[in-house]
Amino acid sequence: IKRLTKRKNPWPEIKIRVKQFLAWKLDQMMPRWMDGMAALSTAFEASYECAKQEKSLLDFDDLEIKAALLFRQKTEVSERIREVYQTQYRHILVDEFQDTSPLQLELIEALSQGDNLFLVGDYKQSIYAFRGAEPELFHAKETAYTQSQEGVRIPLLENYRTVPGVLTWINQFFKNLWQEDGYPFEGLEPGGNSEGPGEIGLI
Asked: What is the DSSP string of 45-99?
């Protein structure tokens, strides 16, 4: 610990050590749970699918999959349905785009006219990987919009909720965390008429 604290920026090595510790703990626990969880998951999925079929029901995942399968078909009916929706919506806004799955992106692009998408999100705020979200999709779009004429990237850096003193602390803290990820950090800027020094308290 003393050796780490003497460094100018110990965060990268601290993060590595934490990951190593968690991986070691998981390696100890997982063998006891893996077989049981796999059997339970398989049995639950089979029972769940049977229950849906018996009651002629579809869940949200089913709706996404079947809609994607419909638009993948190059039939007259599927093309007509796609055209109806493409002409119905002049603009398509997707909020929290960092939590979009590949299948959802496929549907979004199928319904888009190609130049009427407005995507809003924050790569670092993705929390739904367990549900199929891939924040790399956001990163790829952001890179494409920055480096080409495919679209326009608009950074939203003004913060209207926090006083400048607190933002300064936040920017410095997260700038260190960002360094090891190879993802550029963009600090927040106070917006509006934020006044007062602000206070930081650890509880």
From this structure: HHHHHHHHHHHT---HHHHHHHHHHHHHS-SHHHHHHHHHHHHH-S-EEESSGGG
Token pair belonging to 42: 């398989």
pLDDT in tens, the chain (203 residues): 555 555 567 777 888 888 888 888 777 777 777 788 888 999 999 999 999 999 999 999 999 999 999 999 989 999 999 999 999 999 999 999 999 999 999 999 999 988 899 999 988 888 999 899 999 999 899 888 888 777 888 999 999 888 898 999 999 888 877 766 667 788 889 987 655 555 656 65
For 86, counting Cβ atoms within 10 Å of its Cβ (0-12 exposed, 13-18 middle, 19+ buried), the class is middle
User: What is the DSSP secondary structure assignment for residue 105, as one 8-state letter?
Assistant: H
* pTM for the model: 0.71
How far is 21 from 112, CA to CA, in rounded Å?
45
Q: What is the DSSP letter of 196?
A: S
